[in-house]
Amino acid sequence: MFQYQSIHIHYKYIDNNNEKTLIYLHGWGQNIEMMEPIAKPFMNEYNILILDLPGFGKSNEPKDIWSLEDYATMLHSLIDKLKIKKIILIGHSFGGKIALIYASIFKVEKLILFASPYKVAIPNISLKVKILKKLAKLPILNKVAEKMKKNMGSTDYKNASPKMRAILVKHINTDATENCKKIKCPTLIIWGTKDADVALNNAYELEELIKNSAVIEYPNCTHYAYLENKNQTINIIKSFIE
Q: What is the pTM of this model?
């Protein structure tokens, strides 16, 4: 556990004495388990940092109503604690938006985004539940998807603490356009063509904002395209970081 501002943050760090560290940031309502399928193939070679963002999984909720910059600053403190130098930052959705903020403030070697919103958006929680039901049919992901469904339904949202609801509102009302313009590192933007949660046009808008970036489309895939085409995602990450 990492203690930050009197809260405990759950993380896993694998140090392979590699100069590169892959850091994984999950989406809203998720946890470490949703990023592990694309982290495990690299655990014997690269350094890996994967965490439950505050308010999710085994991590405590923030004491205050955190902004995305607050999440990015927390991450930087953990990176400093672990003495991590060369960062490949990988984020999905909410985690991707944090990654955008982080890369606009701190040094990042490379950035990989999965369906990352960057402007004001309204999450379609009921749609996420439908998508996760489809993912549950995939043998390798069924257990993870079932757990995530419990955390993402509309009832769960209604039962969320007032603090986390306020953080969600702050997140969806944050426009990171100017942050995106400051990002200089090579960036991959991976998107499902059937993402009804964060539309595909956002990918190409990001490509225009981030100078050294490129979009990769996953045909007929949803907001969880990175898992639906897991093997392709792993191969792309491997090629990009090498």
A: 0.86
